[in-house]
Amino acid sequence: MTQYIHLDTETTGNQINGDILSLTAIRTDENMQPIGEEFDVLAKPRKSRAYDVDAYLVNNIDPFVADTHPLTNFQLTKKFQEVFINWSNEGPTLFNAYNGYQFDFLLMSHHLYSNLYTWPWIFSTGNAKQIDLLPITQTIDYYEPNKIATELNSKSNKVYKLASLCEKNNFPIKDSHTSRGDTEGLINLNKHLIKMSPELFKESLKFVNRRDVQPFLKKEEYFTFTETWGGKTRQYTGTYIGEHCIYKGYHLVWDNRHDAETIFSEKSSSNLNKKLFSAPKKIRQIREGKNPLLRGKAYSKKNYKGMNNEYKEISLDQIEKSAKYIISNREEILNRANLIIEDQFKEKNLNQTDLLPEQMIFSLNPRAEQKSMMDSFVNSSRMEDKQKIVESLKGDHNAPIRHLAEIILFEEYDNEAFDKKDYKKLRKRIANKLLSTNKESFPTIPEAFSRIDTLRIEVEKSENKERKEKIENINNHLEKLQDRHLAGKESDAEKW
Description:
The protein has 496 residues and is an alpha+beta fold. It has 20 helices and 11 strands. It has 3 domains: 201 residues, 2-Layer Sandwich (Nucleotidyltransferase, domain 5); 138 residues, PX Domain (2-Layer Sandwich), CATH 3.30.1520.20; 133 residues, no CATH class.
C-alpha cells in the first residue's frame, strides 16, 4: 500500500528566499483516510533575511508573533528531514502538495541545502515520490470536464486556486492560507478527484517514477501531453527529440503540428534559430520529475486534435510525416537544437557563477570530504564542534559552505559562536546585503518599505481598516528590523 503525505507551508517569501513559518503534514492511505501521526510545527524567520511584505498579508501571520515561534529555521529543517525520511522508509510514499513542484518541494529543498544537508532531494529518493495536485486537477478537468466545479475570473478563464476549488465543490477550507487548513483542503480535493474521476486519477500517477518517462518518450512514435497556463489547458501531440543540454531530466519534444522537415532544412544556424524559437513554439519541454500525464500513439491517433484549436487544420498525415522525420534525423536535430540553446544561455549569462551561496543549490556539488564536514556540522549537537568545523573550512573552494555554516551559527547562537571581530564582520556583511538599495535577487528592507508605500495608497482608496492596520504593523516590524541591521553596520555591532 502506498501512503500519502499531504503537506502545505506558510512562508515569508518565495521558494528560494522565503522562510517556513508554519508546516503541516498529514498522512493518509490511498483512500485518503488518516493514518499514523501528523506533523505540525511553527518556526521563526531567519534574522539574516528580509521578507516579502505580501507574504505576511496573505498568511495573516503577525511578523512580531512569527519572531516568537518555538523553532529556528535550522531546527525546523532538521525536524522535518528526520520525520519525512522515517515516514518514507516505512514503504512506498507519495508526497503531495498543491503547486508543490513550483513552490513547496523546492522551498523545502532550499531549506535543506542552505542548512548544509548534502542531499536536499528527499521527496524523490528511495521509497519517496512527489506529486502535485494542481496539474493533476487541471489535467482531469481538461479530459473530463464538468467533473470539477471551477470559478471563472474576469477573463472567463478557470481559477485553480485551492481555496476556490474547495469552495466551489462544497468542502470549503475552514482556515484558508494556514498550513493546516490548506493541507486539509488538499486532502478533501484529492478525495473529490478520486470519487469523480477514479480511472483518470489513477492514470495521472502513471509516471510518478521519473525513470519511466524517458523510455516511454523514446518508444512512442508520437504521444499526447498537456500544458496549462492562464487557466487554460491545451493538448499537444509530440515526438521525442532528446534531453535538454543544460537541465538534466528536461526533455525536448517536437510539436507535430509544425513541419519539421521544412524548418530543419534550413542550413544557417542563425536562420534556424529564428524559425525554431519564434512563436508559436515548435519545441516543447517535458520534465520527468513533474509526473506528466502522457498518452501513447494509439490514443493520439484518435484524439490528436484534442479539445482546443491548435490542431484544427492539421491532418493525421501531417502529424505522422513530422514524427517520422524527427525520428529519422533525431541525433542531428538534437545536436542543432542544443547548440542554439547553449548559445542562448551564454548570451543571457544564465549561469550560476555570480550566485550567492544561498542560491547555489544546483551548482555547489560538494566533494566527498566537504560532504563529510557538512554531515558532521548538521549532526553535531555542541556549538563548539560546529565552530571547529567552520574553522577547518579554509580556501575559496570551501567559501560557500563556510558562509552557510556561519549563517547557521549566527541564527542558532548569535554572538556566542564568534569572537568579537568576526561577529562584527558577519553582522556588517548581512546588513550590507539586506540594506542594499540596488535591485537584488533577494528581498531587501528598502524594497519592503517601497512595497509598503504602494500598499498604503491602495488601502486608502479601498478604506479597508483591517488591512491598513496589518500594513502598519508590518511597517513597524520592518522599522525595528532595519534598526537592528543598521546597528550591525556600526563598528560596535551589538548582540542581536
